[in-house]
Automatic annotation (TrEMBL):
The keyword S-adenosyl-L-methionine does not apply. Residues 30-83 form the HTH lysR-type domain. The lineage of its organism: Bacteria, Pseudomonadati, Pseudomonadota, Alphaproteobacteria, Hyphomicrobiales. GO terms for biological process: positive regulation of gene expression. Keywords: DNA-binding, Transcription, Transcription regulation. This is Transcriptional regulator. Belongs to the LysR transcriptional regulatory family. PANTHER family: TRANSCRIPTIONAL ACTIVATOR PROTEIN LYSR. InterPro entries: LysR_HTH_N, LysR_subst-bd, WH-like_DNA-bd_sf, WH_DNA-bd_sf. The keyword Secreted does not apply. One of its GO terms (molecular function) is sequence-specific DNA binding. It comes from Azorhizobium oxalatiphilum.
């Protein structure tokens, strides 16, 4: 099929057949001009679209034909007639343009954080307050980035980060575990948690001596808070835990049921609400420490860095947290 285009530019002369060398590297500007001429129907319209002069468009179109070694157009009066070879070449060029447009879209999506799947893991205590709030904010700002939010014990998160299974982890980390990138380290003072109406609620702060008079629900000795509390108890010599709960959530649930009192992070304690539990500062203070981590030796993608920055912003704005 021969396509005809009206044109009032006399500068273009097809000369590829007689002068073609076929060895020159194709020029992207020449290809854009050829595509524009076919799309708009004339050199004049193509020059307006590309903001080039008509002679420049004609000259580069002729240069392209010499590079290809065959004619793209034939002139018939003031009309340009695209040749069968030109049609075949333009059809293939259109496929390339579709591919380039897709690449451009991919680039835009990457630039605007529209692509990707982020895997975030946190210990149970960090599933309340600033961390889920930060993830929710990130999801609102980047709706096309998928998020998987998992809850695991510290050891599972550390192993998963080291193996590259998670992109971001919010967890506690022993000093001996060093094969991860630490983005931020935070501390939050533990609170004494008690049922509503408990006698200790009359105190402005709770001490080890105060705990000696009531059933205590402790966290495991291999947790940071549980270990610190046990060391204090051993030195004090008068407190024996009545029960042990594997997580701070389980400990607070027992407290809410009237089983005793516990010491835990402020995030879990506040998740029950003032109507079920009451908290008081504990002295001498025991810090609940945690870190925002990434796999080591892996450059953070833009979405990962954006999520880390959002988590940091929310944690930094929380009055219970310090660095």
């Amino acid at each position: 099929m021969v396509r005809r285009t009206e044109d009032d530019d006399d500068d273009y002369v097809s000369s590829a057949v007689s002068k073609g060398d076929g060895g020159t590297r194709l020029n992207a500007v020449q290809l854009d001009i050829f595509h524009a001429v076919v799309a708009t129907g004339s050199v004049t319209a193509a020059s307006r679209r590309l903001n080039l002069s008509q002679p420049a468009v004609s000259r580069r179109l002729a240069d392209l034909e010499r590079s290809l070694g065959f004619a793209l157009f034939l002139r018939e009066g003031k009309r340009l007639i695209i040749t069968p070879e030109g049609t075949a070449f333009h059809d293939e060029l259109t496929v390339s343009y579709v591919g380039l447009e897709r690449l451009a879209k991919v680039a835009r999506d990457i630039r605007e954080l529209r692509r990707g799947h982020l895997r975030v893991a946190a210990i149970p205590a960090m599933c309340f307050g600033p961390v889920p709030q930060a993830i929710a904010r990130f999801m609102q700002e980047h709706p096309q980035t998928k998020i998987t939010f998992e809850v695991h014990a510290s050891a599972r998160i550390l192993d998963g980060l080291a193996a590259g299974l998670f992109d971001v982890g919010v967890t506690q980390m022993p000093a001996a575990f060093s094969s991860l990138t630490v983005e931020y380290t935070y501390y939050a003072p533990c609170l004494c948690v008690m049922p509503v109406g408990h006698p200790l609620s009359a105190k402005s702060a709770v001490t080890l001596q105060d705990l000696a008079s009531y059933p205590l629900i402790s966290l495991p000795h291999d947790t940071e808070v549980g270990h610190a509390l046990m060391r204090r108890f051993e030195a004090f010599g008068q407190v024996t835990p009545r029960a042990e709960a594997l997580t701070s959530m389980a400990a607070c649930a027992l407290v809410a049921a009237g089983a005793g009192v516990t010491l835990c992070d402020p995030f879990t304690a506040s998740s029950f609400g003032e109507g079920r539990l009451i908290t008081r500062p504990f002295q001498p203070a025991i810090d609940f420490s945690f870190r925002v981590l990434r796999p080591e030796r892996r450059v953070a993608s833009r979405p990962v860095q954006a999520l880390v920055d959002t988590i940091n912003a929310h944690l930094g704005a929380d009055s219970r947290v310090h660095r």
